Amino acid sequence: MSIDGTRDPEAWAVQVHADPALIDAQAWDALVDASPAQTPFMRHAYLCALHASASAVSGTGWAPQFLVIERDEVLVAACPLYLKNHSYGEYVFDWAWAQAYEEAGLRYYPKLLSAVPFTPVPGSRLLARDPAARSVLLRAMESFARQHGLSSAHVLFLDEADRSAAEAAGWMLRSTVQFHWTNRAPAAYADFADFLASLQRDKRKKIQQERRYVREAGVEFETRVGTQIRAADWDFFYRCYRNTYREHRSTPYLTRDFFAHMAESLPQHWLLFTARREGEPIAASLIALDPERGHAYGRYWGALAPVSCLHFEACYYQPLQWCIENGYRRFEGGAQGEHKMARGLMPVRTHSAHWLSDARFADAVARYLAREGAGIEAYVDELDERNPFKR
Questions:
Q1: Percentage of residues in the chain having pLDDT higher than 90
Q2: What domains sit in the chain, N to C, each tagged with a CATH number?
Q3: How distant, in Å, are the alpha carbons of 189, 192, 204 from that of 325?
Q4: Residue 137: DSSP 8-state
């Protein structure tokens, strides 16, 4: 594949792979380890599991087109890339753009997407040894989109280095808001009670009340980390996870086989809370871990029996308590959810970058993003005024 807009196109060897397993795992992970904002979700084993488990494949609307760039036979840049024929599982919403294309008699799908499927966790997306290689990745994506007649290319939940590179390349930038908890600095919270003491009185009382509801319902929690999570635990978790989708009349994005791959290849990155009542499991919450950076990520949950406030306990209070006890510095609560603020998770801007092939639509989207960006700024300012912590 040729790359438009590069000074020395012959120096860059560009390949596109329809299966991430065809890429050398050690070389890929070396780029991850060198990234300024690495996460477990960009590791070769995680991305391969999404493909091997039939979770992110052509049949589900995620056709892998992983992009790798070599220089002097050394891997210098790479990114997970997918041809998408829908916008599900992305958490950065562009349905209105697709509708506008359709109303104009144009085709929006398939589009080109660099993201971790079903995983709205900010981090490095454009894996590169240096800024020049990162820039070449973006140009290669543009060239791929042009050569295949695609409407657009997108990079979701990118880090600051990726954001700067995209802006320099002329891509349009977009912001959204998530809610993250951070351990107090410089002196971390001593325990959960210490964390509660930092909150305003009404917020503290609300959390204490919600936790009491769960205790009085006779619910206790079992915690397992890494290889402590048994096959039976994974089976029960998946039953809960699938039930949550069923209750919303939807289908799970991830297959049971995906979690089997996680248990085998990346067990150290998982924390499971199982809620039991009278000894019987009734709910589960799965948290992803980055032990090296001390970050935890709220991922999946499900319940088989209704208990007041059980979701808050399983998805926020148990994980936060565990993070404090184990010296973790950050807990990311996932996409959206303004209600998380009352539980100590504060607004954080996340970013995406977008390139549209049609100049007319690019201009219209740029104007829309300028208005949306101003709204996001006002929204974050409003949220900051509702800070749940003591002044």
A1: 93
A2: 9-178+348-385 (3.40.630.30), 184-328 (3.40.630.30)
A3: 9, 8, 19
A4: H
Single pTM value for the model:
0.95
Give ∠ CA 171-55-223 in degrees, rounded to 5. Answer: 105
Checking DSSP bridges between strand 280-290 and strand 13-17, what pairing results, if any? unpaired
Q: Which string of DSSP letters, residue by residue, matches 280-347?
A: EEEEEEEEEEETTTTEEEEEEEEESS--TTHHHIIIIIHHHHHHHHTT--EEEEEE--GGGGGGTPEE
Scan for tokens 């994980």, then name that residue: 319
Question: Using an 8 Å Cβ cutoff, are 118 and 53 in contact?
Answer: no
Q: Which residue has the tokens 């019987």?
A: 280
Closest C-alpha to 181, from 41, 318, 286:
318
pLDDT digit string (tens) for 3-28?
A: 665 556 568 999 999 999 999 999 99
Comparing CA positions, the residue from 287, 313, 292, 294 lying closest to residue 229 is: 287
d(CA 190, CA 291): 19
What average pLDDT does the structure give for the chain?
A: 95
Helix (H) or strand (E) holding 372: helix 359-385
Overall size of the chain counted in residues = 391
Element (H, E) at 266: none
Distances (CA, A) of 116 to 34, 214, 253, 298, 375: 18, 34, 13, 15, 27
The DSSP annotation for 13-36 comes to EEEEESSGGGS-HHHHHHHHHTST
